[in-house]
Amino acid sequence: MTMSDIPAGPPRLEHADGRATITLNRPVHHNRLHGEDLLALQAHCRTLAADASLRVVVLQATGPSFCAGFHLGELDADAAAGPQLFEQTVDAVEALPVPTVCRLQGGVFGGATDLALACDFRIGVHGMVLRMPAARIGLHYYPSGLRRYVSRLGVSAAKRLFLLAETLPADELQRIGYLDRCVAAEHLDDEVRQIVDALLAGAPLALRGMKSSLDEIARGEYDLQRLRAREAACAASEDLREGQAALAQKRSPEFKGR
Fold first, then answer.
1. What pLDDT sits at residue 204?
2. Is 105 among the domain residues?
3. Cα-atom radius of gyration of the chain, to the nearest Å?
4. Which residue range is the domain that position 112 belongs to?
5. Which of 132, 181, 233, 246 could form a disulfide with 161 if both were Cys (CB 3.0 to 4.6 A apart)?
6. What is the 3-class SS of the chain, one letter each residue?
7. Does 26 share its domain with 84?
8. Are 146 and 162 in contact (CB under 8 A)?
9. What is the pLDDT of residue 83?
């Protein structure tokens, strides 16, 4: 069975050997996100956050577009799938304790731009575009999304995207730091695999700790005591001793996450 053979519906989670993949799966509607999709994403995040063996998460989508954002037919602050549910969902993706990679095989629009930005790395393809039309529909974006844009892209880029509602092509997305890498479509999976392999080669405790610390610093939540505690945990870990031994013996380390 290929990806295109799987019936459309809420995001799917595949999880084995420390790797997890979340797949958006409404290709006919450009993977727009309905309330049930957001609830499924939150459930997947809770499952993954509780798994101590998890090492890396890939967020991807089926069809020609990555995601068209929130289903505007459900854009009602009084509805169960209101803007706060979307905000909570994207925040849950950002809060995943392990590195996350977003595979962008096509266009990214509306709230999906923030969903991808919540991931640690974004790999895109030549020819893709991004647009954030909030101002054109009279929407003031939610606070954590604005914070993510400013902390990760800078206020100038955030204003271009939110206030001017510019449509940016792939090369410009890479220039402003939205895309970490941009490749031809036929090389996308290889590029994602390289990033995933590089993350799997790292020590789990160090990766988890430094991801949390870097995100906190970016948000202005710098707490020296908390950072020192993570530093001390890695300094006392079996992984550090294994890493030192592997370096001395000129071999690949076998980290255990403890």
1. 94
2. yes
3. 19
4. 3-199
5. 132
6. CCHHHCCCEEEEEEEECCEEEEEEECHHHCCCECHHHHHHHHHHHHHHHCCCCCCEEEEEECCCCCECCECHHHCCCCCCCCHHHHHHHHHHHHCCCCCEEEECCCCEECCHHHHHHCCCEEEEECCCEEECCHHHHCCCCCHHHHHHHHHHHCHHHHHHHHCCCCEEEHHHHHHCCCCCEEECHHHHHHHHHHHHHHHHCCCHHHHHHHHHHHHHHHCCCCCHHHHHHHHHHHHCCHHHHHHHHHHHHCCCCCCCCC
7. yes
8. yes
9. 65
Residue 44's nearest CA partner among 93, 7, 104 is 93
**pLDDT on residue 257:** 85
88 in Cβ contact with 53 (< 8 Å): no
The predicted structure's pLDDT at residue 3 = 47
Give domain status of residue 28, yes or no: yes
Q: Please give the pLDDT value at position 73.
A: 66
CATH number of domain containing 111: 3.90.226.10
